[in-house]
Amino acid sequence: MSYILEAHNIVKQYATHRALDDVSVNVPKGSIFGLLGPNGAGKTSLIRIITQITAPDEGYILLDGECLRTQHIQQIGYLPEERGLYKKMKVGEQLLYLAQLKGLSEREAMDKLKIWFKKFDIKTWWTKSIEDLSKGMQQKIQFVATVMHEPKLIILDEPFSGFDPINANLIKDEILELRSKGSTIIFSTHRMESVEELCDHIALVHQSKVILNGSKKEVKDQFKENSYTVNFRGVLSDFNPDFELISQKNGEEGINQANIRIVGQASVNQLVDNLINQVELVAFHENIPSFNQIFIKAVGDKMPVETL
Amino acid sequence: MKNIFLVLKREYLVRVRKKSFIVMTILTPLLIAAFYGIVVWAAVGSFNNDHKTIQVIDQSGLFKNQFKNDKNTTFQFTDEPVATAQKKLKGKEGDLLVYIPADILNEPKGLKIYAEKTIGPMVQSRIEKIIQKELRNIKLSKAGITQEVIEDANQNVNAQTYSLDDEGKSQSSSTIAAYVAGYAAAFLLYIFILIYGAGVMQGVMEEKSNRIIEVIISSVKPFHLMLGKIMGVAAVGLTQFLLWAILSFGVTTATQAIFGFNRFTATQEVMNKQMEQDDPELKKEMEKQQNGTLKVIQNFKESAESLPLTQIFLCFIFYFLGGYLLYSSLYAAIGASVENQQEAGQFTFPVMLPIISAIFFAQLAINQPDGSLAFWTSMIPFTSPIVMMARIPFGVPAWEIALSMALLVLGFVGTTWLAARIYRVGILMYGKKVNYKELSKWIFYKG
């Protein structure tokens, strides 16, 4: 697998606080990569090193196989968590300015912006001041500013905050489209449902270290408990020691539900055999942990509740 | 480099298009012209008073023939008691009552002038002069000095000052013009550094509190952003200065053409004639007094030409840029370190202190352009732009200017380096109250 971004053994030390401690992360090309972690874990520090806002104390970063250099700025688009634009500047001028800072010529920037303004149906905003736009509208402008130079690597920090569901969906579709066009997206968020929906790789940073890293499947496999949910009619009573009944509840219309874990060496088929001898099966599926559960489990009780 | 230019361009355009900039740029020369106009008008207008009658109660009996009527003034001697005469003044605007006590020779302070309204300084000094002169004449003749000797002793001395140029040729110079030019240049520089330095700080604070800073510095190096901003604001300052210079010159010339000099000289002639009728002696006195101001205005062109105008102009540009760069980088560092105006206060004061003291040193330097205080304060980069500008119209040796400029360049390179190190840490620091100890730590942070 080829990686768009490789971070090797990054260390970043602030006066009394080690923000990143030997962090290594590989982001596969063309993926949507979830950079997860509780507040203060070191995500922003890592992002600022990738965007060359700060430099690491130790370690190095490769972008598309090359050591990170100033020229790479043009290949990265960054949407910080704290959004901000020049309030008094006109939308069009501001975007042209930001595009030129990313190395586009005025003409190229103009052509690209026209496409985006058409796509988002915001042509009438061109001459408006940012301060005259609603927060959601400003967010859209900021999103355009992040991706208009068609960067190879797009870093989005909490991209959906401040959007209503309709606009959040619009942005989600844009993210998927950018990926299909070949961009890689690093996606930093606390909202696990969007991680579930979009990400195909994740890294979980906690207390300045990477504690989980891999593809969606790898990570989930790591947290699977070999347990299954069964919906059935009848009564479950007899259990082989290979199986453990975790919970059982009676549902509507005579359909009950049970959670069963395979503890011994038994196979799934043996469990099913065991079940159909006792009850009429309605549904049977493996319990795959959600990222939410994985996050809580991995980060543990140290995690303050309100940030989940 | 390209990014510095982009930042500069944005900074310049945004500021130049601001309404406040346009209003300030147009209004200031108009205000200067209006002020100039009012001064001229007042000078002209004050001699065009209506006819007034001046009652004189002369208890000493010494001044019977000393007050002479002219077409605007009639003197009437009266023996009425003061209280009665005072009552008569009621309702007669412009009329005066002069009371001369019997023992005026021994008690000159007993002289009293009454009017319904305030008394103009011109009238007052005219009356005082007449009485003063007469008292002196009386006392001198009592001491045995004849009228001829007194006349002869009234010599007018009015020095022409010359400054020797490099070729030893003497050039008429006017100290007063150098004084005015020096002070104006120093003061303008002071205002520019304060206003535009604070402008840079505001701009940096705005970017920080807007949170756009993180977007920008993911595209531009913080140092480049800071430089671009500082240079953009400098360009705004230069634009304003040049526009002011052009507009002020235009408007002032127009004002002069319309009602300035012609009317002024005409009035002066009227005044001269009037005073000649009055008293040739008094005329000389008045002339002497007025020469100071009249000469400046009348001969201003002449004496201004004696000033090294090109040198003043070029030095002004240099010292503006140098002084501004030195201070604005410090202002930028402050703007980056704080989150609001209140917090900024504690850090701006130490930066403003040398600027404010520079304007004091400049005042001292004008009075003693070659003094050692003037020399040293025009070498130290923190005060040199303002103090040196105050000295230059008086003529400063080339090596001094060169040394001062070189030190200024070193100074701003130094402050910019220092400021950049604070700036790059400060702009990303939120929710932390900073103090000097903290700032000094930032200077040594790694990339």
Sequence-ordered SSE layout with sheet pairings:
The complex is a heterodimer of chains A (308) and B (447).
Chain A: E1 3-13, E2 18-28, E3 32-36, H1 43-50, E4 58-63, E5 66-67, E6 76-79, H2 91-101, H3 106-119, H4 135-147, E7 153-157, H5 165-180, E8 184-188, H6 192-198, E9 201-206, E10 209-215, H7 216-223, E11 227-233, E12 243-250, E13 255-262, H8 268-276, E14 280-286, H9 291-299
Parallel strand pairs in A: 3-8, 3-9, 6-7, 7-8
Antiparallel strand pairs in A: 1-2, 1-4, 4-5, 9-10, 11-13, 11-14, 12-13
Helix pairs in contact in A: 2-3
Chain B: H1 2-16, H2 19-45, E1 52-58, E2 73-77, H3 82-89, E3 96-100, E4 112-115, H4 121-142, H5 147-153, E5 162-164, E6 170-172, H6 175-210, H7 213-217, H8 222-259, H9 261-278, H10 280-298, H11 300-306, H12 309-337, H13 341-367, H14 372-377, H15 384-391, H16 398-426, H17 436-443
Parallel strand pairs in B: 1-2, 1-3
Antiparallel strand pairs in B: 3-4, 5-6
Helix pairs in contact in B: 1-8, 2-8, 2-9, 6-8, 6-12, 6-13, 6-15, 8-9, 8-12, 9-10, 10-11, 12-13, 12-15, 12-16, 13-15, 16-17
